[in-house]
Write a structure and sequence with these properties.
Elements (H helix, E strand, L loop, with lengths): L6 E5 L4 H17 L2 E8 L4 H18 L3 E5 L11 H20 L3 E3 L4 H14 L10 E2 L3 E2 L7 H11 L15 H16 L4 H30 E2 L7 E4 H6 L2 H16 L7 H9 L10 E4 L5 E4 L3 E5 L10 E4 L4 E4 L4 E9 L13 E5 L7 E4 L6 E2 L8 E2 H7 L4 H4 L4 E4 L2 E5 L3 E2 L11 E9 L9 E2 L2 E2 L1
Parallel strand pairs: 1-2, 1-4, 2-3, 4-6
Antiparallel strand pairs: 5-6, 7-8, 8-11, 9-10, 10-11, 12-16, 13-14, 14-22, 15-22, 16-19, 17-18, 19-20, 20-21, 23-24
Helix pairs in contact: 1-5, 4-6, 4-7, 7-9
Length: 464
């Protein structure tokens, strides 16, 4: 957990565990050549009692000759809906990080012990979080828990033998919190009635599961890398839906959680219930073309025809845009991550069997009697797709072509004189087909900003 000459930020609340941790680290400080910084966060929730906690920690730090850093959370900052303890924890860890940054600390040490580990395991089990890891001894190669294998009774004996003062947080006795009910009611009952070594048995079981989970995580990491696809959207994790559907359910769950973590930074707050709901629609029986899932922390997951997209933006919404287009100019279309180039060119005969470039439309020059406009789709749009024979709703055309919703809302459409002339990268309108004998055509080209990966603007092989 520590290396010689490390700088450690030590979170000390004034309670038994953190005061013992501080004493232990001071005992090895000289041998390991450590720099210790004592940090205390006053949550402003317990009045004079919390003030006494802060004074005790400061006095103890001074007695050890250590620097002391203290922060008081402003009154009212923790107000709001949800778990008060979770909000307090977020403030506390944010200050740990801030202090570590100022001191150049490599590690942040907290006083979590074996009983905390057991309680967390049980909370994860009862809440169905999809995780059964408890409190890891080391997290992110930064947070360390040197007391994680030591029980509270051992800490009490150590504190007595070393005459270490500590304070008891009165809120630890309030049964309104699940953790306190587990600590004060459930665990003692199980130790007395079921197994005196229950905590050790539970930790051993969790370690077995952790080893197996680590193995699955390595496999899931490879599966995630294999399923990743490039995207024209910034800050989006794009995955192949087909690749996800082929995965074993155990790996599929992990891949979704890992993809979420890559976007959000961690899986904290992501419920297993929501992940299971996503996975249900990735089974053959539950397959639907499009579905959106709010996950957590502002992240949404979008199921589309061929892709699964995770984003903190609503990819299925794009405001209306309209840009006038002039012959001979290049027009940037930022909403589509693309540009449109328009030119008057000599017509040429297309050889039978010649593959048409889906990025380019050759339109009759003569019908260009009105203004040229680039816009996105509107409700009620209709046109006559070349080669289809007859008029078609644009919405039905999108569905037939399996164009995903994230792209259809921002796909550029060329309108000439109030009539759709070309759905960019898909089909021109039959009415704008060049006629035999025409000397000139209107050539319109769709240019992707990431031309090295045309798929970023495509549905299948056709550009957006």
């Amino acid at each position: 957990m520590i290396r010689p000459r490390d700088t450690l930020v030590v979170g000390v609340s004034g309670g038994l565990d953190s005061m013992c941790l501080l004493d232990l680290l001071c005992r090895v400080q000289e041998r390991e050549n450590l720099t210790l910084v004592v940090v205390h966060v006053h949550h402003g929730l317990r009045g004079e009692s919390a003030d006494r906690d802060a004074r005790l920690v400061e006095e103890r730090a001074q007695g050890y000759g250590l620097p002391f850093e203290r922060s008081r959370i402003p009154v009212g900052s923790l107000a709001g809906r949800g778990n008060l303890q979770a909000r307090a924890r977020a403030f506390r860890y944010a200050y740990f990080e801030e202090t570590a940054g100022r001191w150049g600390a490599q590690r942040i040490a907290t006083g979590h012990h074996r009983d905390d580990h057991v309680e967390t395991l049980l909370m994860q089990l009862f809440r169905g979080t999809g995780s059964f890891r408890g409190i890891p001894p080391v997290r992110d190669e930064r947070y360390i828990r040197p007391l994680i294998e030591v029980g509270r009774e051992e800490l009490l004996r150590y504190a007595e033998s070393r005459a270490i003062p500590f304070r008891e947080d009165a809120s630890n006795r309030k049964r309104v919190y699940l953790r306190n009910r587990i600590r004060r009611d459930l665990v003692p009952w199980v130790r007395e009635r079921v197994n005196p070594s229950f905590d050790r048995a539970l930790i051993h079981f969790s370690q077995v599961l952790r080893d197996e989970a680590d193995c699955l995580d390595r496999l899931a990491g490879l599966a995630l890398d294999g399923a990743r696809r490039s995207s024209c959207f910034d800050g989006v994790v794009a995955l192949s839906r087909e690749d996800l559907e082929r995965l074993d359910p155990a790996l599929r769950r992990r891949v979704i959680r890992m993809a979420y973590a890559r976007l959000h930074g961690s899986t904290y707050g992501l419920s297993s219930t929501r992940v299971e709901e996503v996975c249900r629609f990735l089974e053959p029986a539950g397959r639907v073309p499009h579905r959106r899932f709010p996950l957590h922390g502002g992240v949404h997951l979008f199921l589309e025809y061929r892709e699964v997209l995770l984003s903190q933006e609503d990819l299925w919404v794009c405001g209306p845009y309209r840009y006038p287009l002039s012959v001979g100019e290049y027009l940037a279309v930022p909403e589509a991550k693309a540009g449109v180039e328009c030119q008057r060119v000599p017509c040429r005969r297309v050889s039978p069997g010649e593959r048409r470039d889906a990025h380019v439309a050759l339109l009759a020059w003569e019908p260009v009697t009105g203004g040229l406009l680039i816009r996105n789709a509107r409700a009620g749009d209709r046109f006559r797709p070349e080669g289809v024979g007859g008029e078609k709703k644009l919405k039905d055309f999108f569905i037939d072509r399996k164009i995903p919703r994230s792209r259809r809302v921002r796909l550029p459409i060329l309108e000439i004189g109030g009539t759709i002339a070309w759905v960019a990268g898909e089909r021109p309108d039959e009415r704008f087909r060049p006629r035999s004998g025409d000397r000139f055509c209107l050539q319109v080209r769709l240019i992707c900003r990431q031309e090295q990966d045309v798929r970023c603007l495509s549905a299948g092989s056709n550009p957006l």
